[in-house]
C-alpha cells in the first residue's frame, strides 16, 4: 500500500508543507508506505501542448515530471495539499497536473492506457486559503482536482477546506489537524478494504 502526498506550496514550513508532513507522520505510525512530492522541488517545465503525447502516450520531455507521473500507476492513494492562489491551486501544482495530459492522451486519444484503469485508488484534496472563508474560495481548485483524480483513475473521496490560514496557522489548529487525521485514516481504511478483497 503506497500513498503519494503531493504538496503544492512553494513555501517551506508553512501550511501545506506542514500538513503534508503531518499526513506522512500518520502513515508512518500506521506502517503505510508513503512519499511526499514537493512539486516546487521538481525539475520540470510546463506542458507546451505540442501533441506528441497524443501520438505516443508519453511526454517527450525527459524531466522529473515525466518520472514522477509514472509513480501514480502503482500507487494506492493520493492526497493533494495546496494553497489557494487567485481562487485556484498554486501555479506550481497546476504546472505539475498539466503534465498528466500524457495519461489522458494514452487513454482517450490512443486507447492504450498508461495507467491500470481497473485498480482501485483513493484520493483526497486539502486546500488552504489565506482569507477568511468566502463564496467560491475553493470551487475552482476542487474542479481541477475532480478532473485530475479522474485522469489518474483515483476515487475522490475526501476534501477539506481550510480558510483563514494567513491568520491561523493550520498546522497548529487542533480542529484542522483532527480533520486531516480523520481523512488520512479513512484513506488507510479504504486501501485496507481493497487489499482484503484481494
Ligand atoms: C499569489 C497568491 C494568491 C493568493 N490568492 C488567494 C486567494 O485567491 N484566496 C485566498 O483565500 N488566499 C489567497 N492567497 C493566500 C494563500 O492561500 C495563503 O497564504 C496560504 O496559506 C498559502 O499556503 P501555504 O501556507 O501552504 O504556502 C494567495 C497567496 C498568494 C501568494
TrEMBL record:
Keywords: Flavoprotein, FMN. InterPro entries: Flavoprotein-like_sf (IPR029039), FMN_Rdtase-like_dom (IPR005025), ISF_SsuE-like (IPR051796). Signal peptide: none annotated. One of its GO terms (molecular function) is oxidoreductase activity. Pfam families: FMN_red (PF03358). Coiled coil: none annotated. Residues 1-133 form the NADPH-dependent FMN reductase-like domain. It comes from the Bacteria. PANTHER family: IRON-SULFUR FLAVOPROTEIN (PTHR43278:SF2), NAD(P)H-DEPENDENT FMN-CONTAINING OXIDOREDUCTASE YWQN-RELATED (PTHR43278). This is Iron-sulfur flavoprotein. It comes from Peptoclostridium acidaminophilum DSM 3953. The lineage of its organism: Bacteria, Bacillati, Bacillota, Clostridia, Peptostreptococcales.
Amino acid at each position: 500500500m503506497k500513498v503519494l502526498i503531493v504538496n503544492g506550496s512553494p513555501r517551506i514550513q508553512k501550511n501545506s508543507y506542514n500538513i503534508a508532513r503531518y499526513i506522512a507522520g500518520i502513515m508512518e505510525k500506521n506502517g503505510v508506505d508513503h512519499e511526499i512530492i514537493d512539486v516546487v522541488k521538481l525539475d520540470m517545465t510546463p506542458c507546451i501542448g505540442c501533441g506528441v503525447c497524443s501520438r505516443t502516450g508519453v511526454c517527450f520531455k525527459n524531466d522529473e515530471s515525466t518520472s514522477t507521473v509514472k509513480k501514480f500507476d502503482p500507487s494506492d492513494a493520493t492526497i493533494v495539499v495546496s494553497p489557494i492562489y487567485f481562487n485556484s491551486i498554486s501555479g506550481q501544482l497546476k504546472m505539475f497536473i498539466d503534465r498528466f495530459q500524457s495519461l489522458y492522451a494514452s487513454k482517450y486519444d490512443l486507447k492504450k492506457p498508461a495507467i491500470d484503469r481497473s485498480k482501485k485508488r483513493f484520493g483526497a484534496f486539502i486546500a488552504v486559503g489565506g482569507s477568511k472563508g468566502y463564496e467560491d474560495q475553493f470551487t475552482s481548485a476542487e474542479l481541477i482536482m475532480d478532473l485530475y483524480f479522474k485522469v489518474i483513475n483515483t476515487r475522490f473521496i475526501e476534501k477539506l477546506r481550510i480558510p483563514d490560514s494567513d491568520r491561523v496557522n493550520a498546522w497548529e489548529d487542533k480542529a484542522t489537524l483532527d480533520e486531516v487525521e480523520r481523512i488520512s485514516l479513512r484513506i488507510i481504511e479504504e486501501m485496507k478494504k481493497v487489499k482484503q478483497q484481494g
